[in-house]
């Protein structure tokens, strides 16, 4: 069998070198793998869901077992989600696993990306793979949005309504573009079937292609490693792909599946039946999107009313800036970061050894400030929830967040910068107790 | 070593039992909770066992592998540039052919934009109009017309033009207040009837239905982004990101005493766009 394949494909040579390939071991290198594994779970559960979901917005009368909606007119899409949830065996488990896997997918990407950022793994020669990664996270967000908009429920309908307004706000092309995307004036009957094609065909194909590229580049360039005994810029120290890494990664993939299965079975998520079908004149209160869209929700809530008309052109800045320009800036700066950092440090050398956050205080400060920024935005997306939780009015809450935007990120960045320098000066580990000062006797008889 | 291998075996055994359990759960239809638990254990036992096996029992030595730069040698690069240059030169020597090829390819690319425009009609002023018309009765969700006297003060209901209960951009809120409290621009006082005042329900920020009402301060609040509109002074924005007041619907009474519209909203409802303030003419 091996001979047979090798004579035709030359597979033995290549397979052996792949099996002998060394991968360094560190827990933080598994974060990207978790993203990959959740993607596999998303594909498997997603295929199951497509067998039952109907991307169809025509009206039907719901006659299924969910009593509160019995006899109500709902869209065929919404009815198919109810059928999937209440009548198809394992349907609800698959739906909830799919949704949970999506949340974990984006979370794993964000944490993996943070690991790559704070360890400087994006530096030469890995700038191209960093760019591929930026595209992957944008596609993941698009997958999330197109996915949770499909059930045609009240919460996701509001999300589409807002998306429509965001497209409308783009100068000159906005109204035309909104009519093209939605197939007419909102609300239309075309949008779910369009999102469905994007969600199950167009975006996943691009995503799979880019994941393949991401891994191929990683394979060719070999993984980075932390500094340590025997580790240099010109070697990789770790364990062989086969059998160790194959076994461990397979086990980890199955474990990821176990966690998602338990979440899907035990923790309710997106109960669309309790939101009800979409009706443009109704809203859920409060209404928050999935967590990874929260930062956009926050920017939109916080931006003050400002809508100037200049030379007859009205600019709805309170949507355009927070929902179009700001994310544009965020992703551009992220994509350009390898070059921005090179401009600052002048470091153009190849790096296969990773930094720890303290090794590059400025980068760490910028990263911490950026994460703080995004976290505040995300929390601001729940300003009404916090307001009622703490029993203060939502205006005060909003102002608190508006002030925090400007104060907390620079402050957090400054603290991170000082901490990095402090750790460099003292040589301590941030989480381990100090071992005291090590004195060494040198050959001349003195101490150092 | 012994303890670890025993743990791996136990782990796989749990997985096997859970897989059988999952089938039983499926057959007796034991519900979501048990589906999740058995699947979680089946996968968890399997995954945990494998990871433990790899980590504790597999004698995988730490090894070192050399890392070579992927870069080609200068000679290889030169050879590549030469080959590339020759090929490009062979094609670009024929300037006229190249020029027309670029033109043909470019124009064809531009022509490919055409199918995009099949995706939807142009706005054609649709954003500026709603289903309200002169004499349209205000009806509630059930399609029933409303009389001012049916409504207690400080009440708020959602109304539509008769025959268009589901129309997305025609939805409006009817609030009844004490007429003494109203402080509208004088020309708009005649748009109210016995303290009844109607505004578009589509938020001028992002289009959500403005469905919350604070009766103590007579403010309408959008649940999405908390834009707040003052009912008594003409739905001016008092807080939040909305950039325009909610348009007000001019009201009248028909001879049976039901509320009717004097016409469509005088301003555009819903979120703003670049030529929203152009007086007439089609939008982009």
Account of the protein in words:
The complex is a heterodimer of chains A (448) and B (284). Chain A is built from 16 helices and eight strands. Chain A has 448 residues and is mainly alpha-helical. In chain A, a hairpin with a 2-residue loop joins strand 6 and strand 7. In chain A, helix 5 packs antiparallel against helix 6, helix 7 packs antiparallel against helix 8 and helix 12 crosses helix 13. The C terminus of chain B is likely disordered. In chain B, 31% of the residues lie in helices and 15% in strands. In chain B, strand 7 and strand 8 form a beta hairpin. Chain B starts with a helix and ends in a 23-residue tail after the last strand. A five-stranded antiparallel sheet of chain B has the order 2-3-4-5-10, with no helix packed on it. In chain B, strands 6-7-8-9 form a four-stranded antiparallel sheet, with no helix packed on it. In chain B, strands 11-12 form a two-stranded antiparallel sheet. Chain B has four helices and twelve strands; from the N terminus they run ααβααβββββββββββ. Chains A and B meet through helix 5, helix 7, helix 8, strand 5 and helix 10 of A and helix 2 and strand 1 of B. Strand 5 of chain A pairs antiparallel with strand 1 of chain B.
Question: What's the topology here?
Answer:
The complex is a heterodimer of chains A (448) and B (284).
Chain A: H1 2-9, H2 11-19, E1 22-23, H3 31-50, E2 59-61, E3 73-75, H4 76-86, H5 91-118, H6 127-148, H7 154-168, H8 174-182, H9 191-221, E4 225-226, E5 235-240, H10 241-266, H11 272-275, H12 294-302, E6 309-310, E7 313-314, H13 317-345, E8 353-354, H14 361-380, H15 383-389, H16 394-426
Parallel strand pairs in A: 4-8
Antiparallel strand pairs in A: 1-5, 2-3, 6-7
Helix pairs in contact in A: 3-5, 3-10, 4-5, 5-6, 5-10, 6-9, 6-13, 7-8, 12-13, 12-14, 14-16, 15-16
Chain B: H1 2-28, H2 32-57, E1 63-66, H3 74-92, H4 95-111, E2 138-139, E3 155-161, E4 172-176, E5 196-200, E6 212-214, E7 219-221, E8 228-230, E9 236-239, E10 248-249, E11 251-253, E12 259-261
Helix pairs in contact in B: 1-2
């Amino acid at each position: 069998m091996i001979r047979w394949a090798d004579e035709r494909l030359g597979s033995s040579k290549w397979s052996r070198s792949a099996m002998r390939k060394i991968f360094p071991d560190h827990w933080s290198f598994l974060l990207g793998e978790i993203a990959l594994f959740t993607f596999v779970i998303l594909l498997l559960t997603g295929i199951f869901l497509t067998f039952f979901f109907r991307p169809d917005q025509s009206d039907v009368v719901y006659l299924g077992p969910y009593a509160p909606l019995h006899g109500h007119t709902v869209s065929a899409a919404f009815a198919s989600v109810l059928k999937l949830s209440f009548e198809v065996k394992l349907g609800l488990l698959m739906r909830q696993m799919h949704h949970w896997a999506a949340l974990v997918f984006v979370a794993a990407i964000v944490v993996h990306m943070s690991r790559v950022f704070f360890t400087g793994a994006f530096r030469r020669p890995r700038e191209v793979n960093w760019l591929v990664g930026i595209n992957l996270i944008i596609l993941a967000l698009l997958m999330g949005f197109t996915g949770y908009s499909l059930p045609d429920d009240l919460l996701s309908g509001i999300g589409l309504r807002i998306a429509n307004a965001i497209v409308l706000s783009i100068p000159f092309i906005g109204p035309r573009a909104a009519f093209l995307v939605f197939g007419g004036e909102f609300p239309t009957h075309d949008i779910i079937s369009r999102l469905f094609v994007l969600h199950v065909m167009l975006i996943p194909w691009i995503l799979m292609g880019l994941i393949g590229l991401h891994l191929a580049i990683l394979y060719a360039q070999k993984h980075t490693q932390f500094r340590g005994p025997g580790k240099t810029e010109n070697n990789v120290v770790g364990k062989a792909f086969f059998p160790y890494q194959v076994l461990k990664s397979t086990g980890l993939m199955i474990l990821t599946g176990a966690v998602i299965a338990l979440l899907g079975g035990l923790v309710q998520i997106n109960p669309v039946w309790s939101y009800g079908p979409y009706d443009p004149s109704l809203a859920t209160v409060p209404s928050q999107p999935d967590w990874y869209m929260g930062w956009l929700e926050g920017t939109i809530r916080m931006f003050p009313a400002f809508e100037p008309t200049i030379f007859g052109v009205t600019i709805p800045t309170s949507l355009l800036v927070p929902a179009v320009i700001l994310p544009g800036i965020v992703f551009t700066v992220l994509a350009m970061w390898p070059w921005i950092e090179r401009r600052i440090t002048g470091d153009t050398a190849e790096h296969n050894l990773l930094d720890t956050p303290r090794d590059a205080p400025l980068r760490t400060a910028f990263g911490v400030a950026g994460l703080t920024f995004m976290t505040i935005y995300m929390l601001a997306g729940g300003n009404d929830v916090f307001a009622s939780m703490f029993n203060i009015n939502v205006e005060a809450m909003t102002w608190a967040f508006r002030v925090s935007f400007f104060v907390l990120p620079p402050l957090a960045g400054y603290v991170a910068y000082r901490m990095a320098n402090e750790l460099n000066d003292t040589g301590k580990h941030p989480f381990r107790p100090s071992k005291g000062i090590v004195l060494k006797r040198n050959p001349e008889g003195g101490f150092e | 070593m012994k303890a670890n291998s025993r743990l791996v075996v136990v782990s796989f055994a749990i997985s096997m039992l859970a897989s059988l359990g999952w089938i039983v759960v499926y057959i007796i239809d034991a519900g979501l909770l048990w589906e999740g638990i058995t699947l979680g254990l089946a996968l968890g036992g399997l995954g945990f066992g494998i990871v433990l096996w790899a980590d504790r029992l597999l004698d995988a030595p730490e090894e070192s592998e050399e890392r070579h730069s992927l870069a080609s040698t200068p000679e290889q690069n030169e050879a590549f540039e030469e080959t590339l240059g020759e090929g490009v030169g062979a094609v670009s020597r024929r300037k006229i052919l190249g020029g027309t090829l670029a033109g043909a390819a470019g124009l064809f690319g531009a022509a490919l934009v055409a199918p995009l425009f099949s995706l939807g009609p142009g706005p054609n002023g649709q954003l500026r109009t709603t289903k309200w018309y002169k004499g349209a009765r205000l009806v509630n969700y059930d399609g029933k017309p409303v009389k001012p006297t049916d409504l207690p003060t400080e009440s708020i209901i959602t109304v539509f033009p008769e025959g268009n209960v589901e129309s997305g951009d025609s939805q409006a809120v009817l609030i009844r207040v004490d007429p003494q409290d109203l402080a509208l621009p004088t020309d708009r006082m005649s748009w109210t009837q016995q303290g009844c005042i109607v505004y578009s329900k589509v938020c001028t920020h992002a289009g959500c239905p403005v469905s919350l009402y604070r009766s103590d301060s007579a403010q309408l609040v959008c649940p999405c982004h908390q834009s707040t509109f003052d009912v008594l002074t003409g739905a001016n924005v008092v807080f939040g990101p909305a950039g325009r007041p909610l348009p007000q619907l001019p009201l009248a009474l028909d001879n049976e005493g039901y509320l009717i519209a004097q016409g469509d909203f005088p301003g555009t409802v819903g979120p703003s766009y670049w030529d929203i303030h152009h007086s007439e003419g089609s939008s982009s």
